[in-house]
Amino acid sequence: MADKNPIVPKLEKLGREVSEQIKKGENPYVSIPVRALSNVKFNKEKKTLSLGSQESKRYFVNVAHARKFMQTMLVSSFCKELVEHDIHASIREAYYSLKRNIAGTHENTFEEQGESDPIIVDLEVMLDILREQLHLNADRSGVAAGKVIISDRGDTIDWSKLGSGGWSVPSNVEDIKIKKVDAKFVLVVEKNATFDRLNEDRFWEKHDCILVGTHGQAARGTKRLIHNLHQKTNLPVYVFTDADAYGYYIYSVIKSGSINLAHASEEFATPSAKFIGLTMADIENYGLEKYTIRATDQDLKRTREMLKYPWFAAKEWQEELKTMVERKIKAEQEALASRHLKFVSEEYLPTKIKKKDFLP
Protein backbone atom coordinates (compact mmCIF):
# COMPACT_ATOMS: atom_id res chain seq x y z
CA MET A 1 0.00 0.00 0.00
CA ALA A 2 1.26 3.48 -0.86
CA ASP A 3 1.95 6.15 1.76
CA LYS A 4 -1.10 8.10 2.77
CA ASN A 5 -1.99 10.55 0.03
CA PRO A 6 -2.79 14.16 1.14
CA ILE A 7 -6.18 13.75 -0.57
CA VAL A 8 -7.25 11.04 1.89
CA PRO A 9 -7.62 13.42 4.88
CA LYS A 10 -10.10 15.52 2.88
CA LEU A 11 -12.22 12.47 2.18
CA GLU A 12 -11.96 11.33 5.79
CA LYS A 13 -12.99 14.79 7.00
CA LEU A 14 -16.13 14.58 4.85
CA GLY A 15 -16.97 11.21 6.41
CA ARG A 16 -16.33 12.44 9.95
CA GLU A 17 -18.57 15.49 9.48
CA VAL A 18 -21.47 13.32 8.31
CA SER A 19 -20.85 10.81 11.11
CA GLU A 20 -20.85 13.57 13.76
CA GLN A 21 -24.12 14.96 12.42
CA ILE A 22 -25.70 11.52 12.80
CA LYS A 23 -24.34 11.11 16.35
CA LYS A 24 -25.90 14.45 17.29
CA GLY A 25 -29.26 13.27 15.98
CA GLU A 26 -29.18 15.77 13.14
CA ASN A 27 -30.30 15.22 9.57
CA PRO A 28 -26.91 14.60 7.88
CA TYR A 29 -26.08 16.74 4.86
CA VAL A 30 -23.27 17.88 2.60
CA SER A 31 -22.86 21.39 1.19
CA ILE A 32 -22.18 21.68 -2.53
CA PRO A 33 -21.36 24.89 -4.45
CA VAL A 34 -23.98 25.50 -7.14
CA ARG A 35 -22.67 24.59 -10.59
CA ALA A 36 -24.86 26.75 -12.82
CA LEU A 37 -24.34 29.76 -15.08
CA SER A 38 -26.09 31.91 -12.47
CA ASN A 39 -23.25 31.14 -10.05
CA VAL A 40 -20.38 31.48 -12.53
CA LYS A 41 -18.34 34.67 -12.36
CA PHE A 42 -15.77 36.03 -14.81
CA ASN A 43 -12.67 37.44 -13.15
CA LYS A 44 -11.58 40.25 -15.49
CA GLU A 45 -8.18 40.54 -13.83
CA LYS A 46 -7.34 36.82 -14.04
CA LYS A 47 -9.38 36.34 -17.24
CA THR A 48 -10.81 33.09 -15.90
CA LEU A 49 -14.20 31.77 -14.84
CA SER A 50 -14.88 30.86 -11.23
CA LEU A 51 -17.77 29.72 -9.07
CA GLY A 52 -19.60 32.21 -6.91
CA SER A 53 -20.60 31.71 -3.27
CA GLN A 54 -24.00 30.06 -3.81
CA GLU A 55 -24.31 26.65 -2.16
CA SER A 56 -26.97 23.99 -1.87
CA LYS A 57 -27.36 21.36 0.84
CA ARG A 58 -27.96 17.70 0.09
CA TYR A 59 -29.77 15.99 2.99
CA PHE A 60 -30.10 12.30 3.77
CA VAL A 61 -33.59 12.54 5.26
CA ASN A 62 -35.21 14.17 2.26
CA VAL A 63 -37.13 12.32 -0.42
CA ALA A 64 -35.66 14.49 -3.17
CA HIS A 65 -32.08 14.23 -1.84
CA ALA A 66 -31.71 10.79 -0.25
CA ARG A 67 -30.63 8.92 -3.39
CA LYS A 68 -27.97 11.47 -4.36
CA PHE A 69 -26.77 11.67 -0.74
CA MET A 70 -26.26 7.90 -0.73
CA GLN A 71 -24.50 8.07 -4.09
CA THR A 72 -22.21 10.85 -2.83
CA MET A 73 -21.09 8.70 0.09
CA LEU A 74 -20.52 5.68 -2.18
CA VAL A 75 -18.36 7.65 -4.63
CA SER A 76 -16.40 9.23 -1.76
CA SER A 77 -15.64 5.83 -0.23
CA PHE A 78 -14.66 4.38 -3.61
CA CYS A 79 -12.25 7.27 -4.28
CA LYS A 80 -10.68 6.86 -0.85
CA GLU A 81 -9.91 3.22 -1.69
CA LEU A 82 -8.40 4.19 -5.05
CA VAL A 83 -6.13 6.82 -3.56
CA GLU A 84 -5.07 4.69 -0.58
CA HIS A 85 -4.13 1.76 -2.83
CA ASP A 86 -2.59 4.04 -5.49
CA ILE A 87 -4.65 2.63 -8.36
CA HIS A 88 -6.64 4.45 -11.02
CA ALA A 89 -10.05 3.76 -12.52
CA SER A 90 -11.98 5.17 -15.44
CA ILE A 91 -15.23 6.91 -14.66
CA ARG A 92 -16.92 4.06 -16.53
CA GLU A 93 -15.23 1.52 -14.24
CA ALA A 94 -16.31 3.59 -11.24
CA TYR A 95 -19.92 3.37 -12.38
CA TYR A 96 -19.83 -0.42 -12.75
CA SER A 97 -17.93 -0.87 -9.49
CA LEU A 98 -20.58 1.06 -7.58
CA LYS A 99 -23.69 -0.21 -9.38
CA ARG A 100 -25.48 -2.81 -7.26
CA ASN A 101 -28.91 -3.70 -5.92
CA ILE A 102 -29.95 -2.09 -2.64
CA ALA A 103 -30.81 -4.96 -0.30
CA GLY A 104 -34.53 -5.44 0.30
CA THR A 105 -35.56 -3.21 -2.60
CA HIS A 106 -35.89 -3.28 -6.36
CA GLU A 107 -33.62 -0.24 -6.61
CA ASN A 108 -30.00 -0.03 -7.76
CA THR A 109 -27.42 2.34 -6.32
CA PHE A 110 -26.87 3.70 -9.85
CA GLU A 111 -29.01 3.02 -12.90
CA GLU A 112 -26.69 4.58 -15.48
CA GLN A 113 -23.40 6.44 -15.74
CA GLY A 114 -25.34 9.66 -16.17
CA GLU A 115 -25.98 9.46 -12.43
CA SER A 116 -22.43 8.76 -11.26
CA ASP A 117 -20.57 11.31 -13.43
CA PRO A 118 -22.23 14.40 -11.88
CA ILE A 119 -21.59 13.03 -8.38
CA ILE A 120 -17.88 12.86 -9.21
CA VAL A 121 -17.92 16.52 -10.22
CA ASP A 122 -19.87 17.37 -7.04
CA LEU A 123 -17.11 15.73 -5.02
CA GLU A 124 -14.48 17.75 -6.88
CA VAL A 125 -16.28 20.97 -6.06
CA MET A 126 -17.04 20.07 -2.44
CA LEU A 127 -13.45 19.13 -1.61
CA ASP A 128 -11.73 21.62 -3.93
CA ILE A 129 -9.64 18.93 -5.60
CA LEU A 130 -9.33 17.60 -9.12
CA ARG A 131 -10.98 14.38 -10.27
CA GLU A 132 -7.55 13.26 -11.42
CA GLN A 133 -6.29 13.58 -7.83
CA LEU A 134 -9.07 11.20 -6.85
CA HIS A 135 -7.50 8.74 -9.32
CA LEU A 136 -10.48 8.87 -11.67
CA ASN A 137 -9.79 9.05 -15.41
CA ALA A 138 -11.96 9.78 -18.43
CA ASP A 139 -11.46 8.79 -22.06
CA ARG A 140 -8.23 10.12 -23.53
CA SER A 141 -8.38 12.57 -26.41
CA GLY A 142 -5.47 14.64 -27.60
CA VAL A 143 -2.09 14.33 -29.27
CA ALA A 144 1.20 16.24 -29.14
CA ALA A 145 4.47 16.56 -31.06
CA GLY A 146 7.58 18.71 -30.78
CA LYS A 147 11.01 18.90 -29.23
CA VAL A 148 9.85 17.97 -25.77
CA ILE A 149 11.13 15.28 -23.43
CA ILE A 150 8.90 14.06 -20.61
CA SER A 151 8.97 11.43 -17.90
CA ASP A 152 5.80 9.37 -17.52
CA ARG A 153 5.84 6.93 -14.60
CA GLY A 154 9.50 6.20 -15.07
CA ASP A 155 9.51 6.11 -18.88
CA THR A 156 11.38 8.83 -20.79
CA ILE A 157 9.50 9.92 -23.92
CA ASP A 158 10.73 12.20 -26.70
CA TRP A 159 7.79 13.79 -28.55
CA SER A 160 9.98 14.46 -31.60
CA LYS A 161 10.52 10.76 -32.25
CA LEU A 162 7.00 9.33 -32.32
CA GLY A 163 6.36 9.22 -36.06
CA SER A 164 3.11 10.25 -37.71
CA GLY A 165 0.88 9.57 -34.71
CA GLY A 166 2.51 11.85 -32.15
CA TRP A 167 2.24 11.34 -28.38
CA SER A 168 -1.23 10.34 -27.20
CA VAL A 169 -2.21 12.61 -24.29
CA PRO A 170 -3.50 10.50 -21.37
CA SER A 171 -6.64 11.52 -19.52
CA ASN A 172 -4.61 12.05 -16.36
CA VAL A 173 -1.36 14.01 -16.76
CA GLU A 174 -0.67 14.57 -13.05
CA ASP A 175 2.26 12.12 -13.12
CA ILE A 176 3.82 13.66 -16.26
CA LYS A 177 7.13 15.43 -15.61
CA ILE A 178 8.28 17.91 -18.28
CA LYS A 179 12.03 17.39 -18.43
CA LYS A 180 13.17 19.43 -21.46
CA VAL A 181 11.54 21.83 -23.93
CA ASP A 182 13.07 23.39 -27.03
CA ALA A 183 10.34 25.61 -28.48
CA LYS A 184 9.25 29.21 -28.98
CA PHE A 185 5.47 28.74 -28.68
CA VAL A 186 2.68 26.20 -28.27
CA LEU A 187 0.23 25.78 -31.16
CA VAL A 188 -3.09 24.16 -30.24
CA VAL A 189 -5.22 22.93 -33.15
CA GLU A 190 -8.84 21.78 -33.09
CA LYS A 191 -8.94 19.19 -35.86
CA ASN A 192 -7.17 15.83 -36.17
CA ALA A 193 -6.77 16.45 -39.90
CA THR A 194 -5.01 19.76 -39.25
CA PHE A 195 -2.71 18.21 -36.67
CA ASP A 196 -1.81 15.43 -39.12
CA ARG A 197 -1.09 17.96 -41.88
CA LEU A 198 1.14 20.09 -39.64
CA ASN A 199 2.87 17.04 -38.20
CA GLU A 200 3.54 15.54 -41.63
CA ASP A 201 4.94 18.90 -42.77
CA ARG A 202 7.13 18.95 -39.63
CA PHE A 203 5.73 22.36 -38.73
CA TRP A 204 6.82 21.93 -35.12
CA GLU A 205 10.42 21.32 -36.24
CA LYS A 206 10.61 24.11 -38.84
CA HIS A 207 9.06 26.71 -36.53
CA ASP A 208 10.37 25.51 -33.16
CA CYS A 209 7.01 24.95 -31.55
CA ILE A 210 5.01 22.39 -29.61
CA LEU A 211 2.03 21.07 -31.54
CA VAL A 212 -1.05 19.96 -29.58
CA GLY A 213 -4.19 18.53 -31.20
CA THR A 214 -7.43 18.59 -29.19
CA HIS A 215 -9.72 16.51 -31.45
CA GLY A 216 -12.59 18.97 -30.94
CA GLN A 217 -13.35 20.31 -27.49
CA ALA A 218 -10.20 19.72 -25.45
CA ALA A 219 -10.42 16.89 -22.93
CA ARG A 220 -9.44 17.57 -19.34
CA GLY A 221 -6.04 15.93 -19.73
CA THR A 222 -5.26 18.01 -22.81
CA LYS A 223 -6.33 21.29 -21.16
CA ARG A 224 -4.26 20.42 -18.12
CA LEU A 225 -1.27 19.61 -20.34
CA ILE A 226 -1.53 22.96 -22.16
CA HIS A 227 -1.81 24.75 -18.82
CA ASN A 228 1.20 22.87 -17.41
CA LEU A 229 3.32 23.50 -20.52
CA HIS A 230 2.69 27.23 -20.23
CA GLN A 231 3.31 27.26 -16.47
CA LYS A 232 6.56 25.32 -16.90
CA THR A 233 7.97 27.22 -19.88
CA ASN A 234 6.08 30.54 -20.03
CA LEU A 235 5.79 29.98 -23.79
CA PRO A 236 2.97 31.82 -25.62
CA VAL A 237 -0.01 29.64 -26.51
CA TYR A 238 -1.83 30.10 -29.84
CA VAL A 239 -5.14 28.36 -30.56
CA PHE A 240 -6.21 27.49 -34.11
CA THR A 241 -9.85 26.44 -34.67
CA ASP A 242 -12.63 26.60 -37.23
CA ALA A 243 -14.36 29.92 -37.80
CA ASP A 244 -17.59 28.97 -36.08
CA ALA A 245 -19.24 29.27 -32.69
CA TYR A 246 -18.05 25.83 -31.64
CA GLY A 247 -14.43 26.59 -32.57
CA TYR A 248 -14.51 29.94 -30.81
CA TYR A 249 -15.88 28.30 -27.68
CA ILE A 250 -13.12 25.67 -27.79
CA TYR A 251 -10.68 28.57 -27.67
CA SER A 252 -12.47 30.30 -24.78
CA VAL A 253 -12.47 27.11 -22.71
CA ILE A 254 -8.71 26.71 -23.16
CA LYS A 255 -8.18 30.37 -22.32
CA SER A 256 -10.68 31.07 -19.52
CA GLY A 257 -12.18 27.75 -18.47
CA SER A 258 -15.68 26.37 -18.93
CA ILE A 259 -18.97 26.87 -17.14
CA ASN A 260 -19.02 23.20 -16.09
CA LEU A 261 -15.47 23.37 -14.76
CA ALA A 262 -15.55 26.91 -13.38
CA HIS A 263 -14.49 25.55 -9.98
CA ALA A 264 -11.16 24.39 -11.45
CA SER A 265 -10.33 27.09 -13.99
CA GLU A 266 -7.05 28.00 -12.33
CA GLU A 267 -5.88 24.42 -12.84
CA PHE A 268 -7.03 24.04 -16.45
CA ALA A 269 -7.19 27.48 -18.10
CA THR A 270 -4.38 29.36 -19.85
CA PRO A 271 -5.47 33.03 -19.63
CA SER A 272 -2.65 34.38 -21.82
CA ALA A 273 -3.65 32.20 -24.81
CA LYS A 274 -4.28 33.99 -28.12
CA PHE A 275 -6.58 33.05 -30.99
CA ILE A 276 -4.73 32.63 -34.30
CA GLY A 277 -7.69 31.78 -36.57
CA LEU A 278 -9.71 31.08 -38.58
CA THR A 279 -11.61 34.37 -38.56
CA MET A 280 -14.28 35.99 -40.65
CA ALA A 281 -11.63 38.35 -42.07
CA ASP A 282 -9.54 35.36 -43.19
CA ILE A 283 -12.34 34.28 -45.50
CA GLU A 284 -11.81 37.38 -47.65
CA ASN A 285 -8.08 37.78 -47.03
CA TYR A 286 -7.35 34.28 -48.27
CA GLY A 287 -10.03 33.96 -50.93
CA LEU A 288 -12.16 31.36 -49.16
CA GLU A 289 -15.55 32.82 -50.09
CA LYS A 290 -16.47 29.78 -52.21
CA TYR A 291 -15.49 27.38 -49.44
CA THR A 292 -17.65 28.65 -46.60
CA ILE A 293 -20.61 26.79 -45.08
CA ARG A 294 -23.99 28.28 -44.30
CA ALA A 295 -24.39 28.68 -40.54
CA THR A 296 -27.32 26.74 -39.08
CA ASP A 297 -29.96 28.27 -36.84
CA GLN A 298 -28.26 26.49 -33.93
CA ASP A 299 -24.90 28.02 -34.91
CA LEU A 300 -26.41 31.50 -34.93
CA LYS A 301 -28.27 30.96 -31.66
CA ARG A 302 -25.04 29.86 -30.00
CA THR A 303 -23.16 32.84 -31.44
CA ARG A 304 -25.76 35.28 -30.10
CA GLU A 305 -25.45 33.69 -26.67
CA MET A 306 -21.68 34.07 -26.77
CA LEU A 307 -22.03 37.78 -27.55
CA LYS A 308 -23.43 38.15 -24.02
CA TYR A 309 -20.64 36.30 -22.27
CA PRO A 310 -18.25 38.68 -20.47
CA TRP A 311 -15.26 36.61 -21.58
CA PHE A 312 -16.13 37.56 -25.17
CA ALA A 313 -16.59 41.24 -24.32
CA ALA A 314 -13.40 42.44 -26.07
CA LYS A 315 -14.13 44.71 -29.02
CA GLU A 316 -12.40 42.34 -31.45
CA TRP A 317 -14.56 39.40 -30.38
CA GLN A 318 -17.77 41.41 -30.45
CA GLU A 319 -17.00 42.39 -34.04
CA GLU A 320 -16.09 38.82 -34.98
CA LEU A 321 -19.25 37.30 -33.55
CA LYS A 322 -21.53 40.00 -34.94
CA THR A 323 -20.01 39.54 -38.40
CA MET A 324 -20.73 35.83 -38.24
CA VAL A 325 -24.37 36.51 -37.32
CA GLU A 326 -24.73 39.09 -40.09
CA ARG A 327 -23.11 36.96 -42.81
CA LYS A 328 -24.61 33.67 -41.58
CA ILE A 329 -21.54 31.69 -42.64
CA LYS A 330 -18.77 29.65 -41.07
CA ALA A 331 -15.54 28.08 -42.34
CA GLU A 332 -13.42 25.07 -41.48
CA GLN A 333 -9.64 24.91 -41.11
CA GLU A 334 -9.51 22.46 -43.99
CA ALA A 335 -10.85 25.17 -46.34
CA LEU A 336 -7.28 26.49 -46.47
CA ALA A 337 -6.36 23.38 -48.46
CA SER A 338 -8.29 24.91 -51.36
CA ARG A 339 -5.20 27.05 -51.95
CA HIS A 340 -2.87 24.05 -51.78
CA LEU A 341 -2.33 21.25 -49.28
CA LYS A 342 0.64 22.84 -47.53
CA PHE A 343 -0.80 26.35 -47.53
CA VAL A 344 -1.71 26.16 -43.83
CA SER A 345 1.80 25.16 -42.77
CA GLU A 346 3.85 27.14 -45.30
CA GLU A 347 1.92 30.40 -45.58
CA TYR A 348 -1.16 30.88 -43.39
CA LEU A 349 0.23 30.09 -39.93
CA PRO A 350 3.76 31.50 -40.48
CA THR A 351 2.26 34.78 -41.75
CA LYS A 352 -0.18 35.04 -38.85
CA ILE A 353 2.57 34.39 -36.31
CA LYS A 354 5.01 36.82 -37.92
CA LYS A 355 2.40 39.61 -38.04
CA LYS A 356 1.05 38.72 -34.57
CA ASP A 357 -2.37 38.61 -36.17
CA PHE A 358 -4.24 37.30 -33.13
CA LEU A 359 -7.54 37.85 -31.36
CA PRO A 360 -7.29 38.32 -27.59
In short:
By secondary structure, the protein is of the alpha/beta class. The chain is built from 13 helices and 17 strands.
In N-to-C order, the SSE pattern is: HEEEEHEHHEEEEEEEHHEHEHHEHEHHEH
For the terminal residues, how far apart are their CA atoms?
48 Å
Gross morphology is globular
CATH class of the largest domain: Alpha Beta
How would you classify the quaternary structure? single chain
Largest sheet: 6 strands, mixed
Tally of contiguous helical segments: 13
Instruction: Classify the fold: give the CATH topology of the largest domain.
Output: Dna Topoisomerase Vi A Subunit, Chain: A, domain 2
- Unreliable stretches (pLDDT < 50, length at least 5) are none
* Approximate helicity band: 40-55%
| CATH architecture identity of the largest domain | 3-Layer(aba) Sandwich
- Rg: 23 Å
**What is the total domain count?**
2
Describe what you observe in this structure.
With 360 residues, this protein is of the alpha/beta class. It has 2 domains: 7-137, Arc Repressor Mutant, subunit A (Orthogonal Bundle); 143-355, 3-Layer(aba) Sandwich (Dna Topoisomerase Vi A Subunit, Chain: A, domain 2). The chain is built from 13 helices and 17 strands. The protein has a 6-stranded mixed beta sheet, sandwiched between helices. A hairpin with a 2-residue loop joins strand 8 (148-152) and strand 9 (155-158). The N and C termini lie far apart (48 Å). The model has no long low-confidence stretch (mean pLDDT 94).
